[in-house]
Specification:
Helix content is 29%, strand content 35%. By secondary structure, the protein is an alpha+beta fold. A hairpin with a 2-residue loop joins β9 (102-105) and β10. The longest helix is centred in the first third of the chain and has 16 residues, at 8-23. The N and C termini lie far apart (64 Å).
Length: 142
């Protein structure tokens, strides 16, 4: 089994936004947004090197595998440290991540319960629409 572990230097850039979103009231809506744009459960996916991740709740995380590819992974409970992790590892067999693998959070091994591919294009459109709704209407300014 091969484990993808994200080095701390790369994680600093990826983790700060994730931690900031978890501390804000909209963190649950962000998790719901990823779930909304996640497809049907899939048995596995091939990975040539995960390049990022974000906690999306107590038992979910989103991993990115190159440009335009993201997966929502749900782990079995209890996985007590996932939401607060600084680094994670994901085991794989022959570059395949399946429900037989684990997410490593410190010394904790969290079995993967479900994998769903995230439609990043639709997710980004929704995020843009939400940001546009949050901005005040500048056309009405005197």
């Amino acid at each position: 089994m091969r484990s993808h572990t994200f080095p701390g230097a790369v994680l600093c850039a990826l983790l700060l936004p994730a931690c900031a979103s978890m501390a804000q009231p909209g963190a649950d809506s962000e998790s719901a947004l990823y779930l909304k744009h996640a497809g049907q459960p899939i048995p596995e996916f091939t990975s040539f090197g995960l390049d990022g991740w974000m906690a999306a709740g107590r038992d979910r995380l989103v991993v990115t595998d190159g440009p335009g590819k993201a997966y929502l992974i749900q782990v079995q409970q209890p996985c007590t440290n996932l939401k607060f992790a600084n680094t994670i590892g994901v085991t794989s067999t022959a570059r395949t991540i399946s429900r037989l693998e684990h997410v490593r959070v410190g010394r904790e091994r969290c079995p993967i319960a479900e994998i769903r591919r995230v439609d990043l294009k639709a997710l980004r459109l929704d995020q843009s629409a939400m940001r546009a709704m949050e901005k005040p209407d500048q056309a009405a300014a005197p």
